[in-house]
Structure formats: structure tokens, C-alpha cells
Amino acid sequence: MAPYDAGSPVQAPETDFRDVLAHLASGVAIVACWDGDAPRGLLVSSITGLSVAPPRFLFCVRKEAGCHDALLARPDLSVALLGAADEDEALRFASGSRAHERFDPARWRLRRPTPPVFAGGVARAVCRVDAVVDAGSHSIFIVEAEHVGFSPAPALVAWNRGLTAVG
């Protein structure tokens, strides 16, 4: 990638911008909902706090993700901010080949009508979808936390296409 010249903006190729985004450290979370009778979920690294009053998160979901349409169809979902001890759970939700390992009742509370809720993590929230914004290849979900739980521990973050603990 060519060095940035402040005098003339340069449009970087898409692969270069992916490298830039890979070096943006971010917390990781599992977002889950019901899809008919089946629990569905995915790992997101685009989650951020939006406001305290009201208590809101926002996160982005690629429109091609298998869970995208289920999230659009549901007014409620859960968000689990993952801790260092949750790396294996993160990998389950990051890999389509491990989808059959997700939502083990030993690790998940699966009681309808509440969305599936992860028993681990640094924090858990049951949320209502406030808005969905079309952002090209992704949808931005803005959700309001209705119920929260917090268990202080070192966080799990995504950085440089991998997961690492901090704190």
C-alpha cells in the first residue's frame, strides 16, 4: 500500500482496506435470536455502545450472513459480550462448519419467548431492535437493552484476523 499523501486523497484497493479494518481492535459479541423454533446466532466484531440513556448498542451484520434475515424478522435478540474464557464459543459462532455445536443447553438459556441467552461472557443483554439501517453490503442494527447482566473479567477482542484477551 502506498504511503498516504495528505495533499491528494488516494482510493485504496478493497483488499488494502480490509487490512486496515483487521488492525482495528474491537470487542466481540454473539448476537442470537429465534428463527421459528431454532436458535440462530453469529459472532460480530462490529459492536459498540451507542448510548447509556437509553441503553443502546449498535452492530453490523453482513447481508449474506445466514442469520441476517432471522435478525431482521425478530423484534428481540440477545447480545453476549465475550470474555477471554469464551474464545471457544466465539470460534463456534465464527465458523459455519461448527454451527452444529452452537446453542448447547449447558452453555445457553433456551427458554422461549426470551431470545437465546449465553450463560458466559463479560455481559449479557436481552435487547429490542429499535432500527435497522441499510449500509450497502451490511445492515446496521440499533438495539435497546431491556435486561442486562455483568460479570467483570478480561475481555476478548478481535485484532489482526484473530482473537486475543485484554485486561
TrEMBL record:
Q: Which InterPro entries match?
A: Flavin_Rdtase-like_dom, NADH-dep_flavin_reductase, Split_barrel_FMN-bd
- Species for this entry: Caulobacter flavus
Q: Which PANTHER family match?
A: FLAVIN REDUCTASE, FMN REDUCTASE (NADH) RUTF
Asked if Electron transport is a keyword of the record, the answer is no
Q: What is this protein called?
A: Flavin reductase
Flavin reductase like domain residues are 21-165
| Keywords tagged on the record | Oxidoreductase
Asked whether the keyword Lipid metabolism is assigned, the reply is no
| SMART domains the UniProt entry points to | Flavin_Reduct
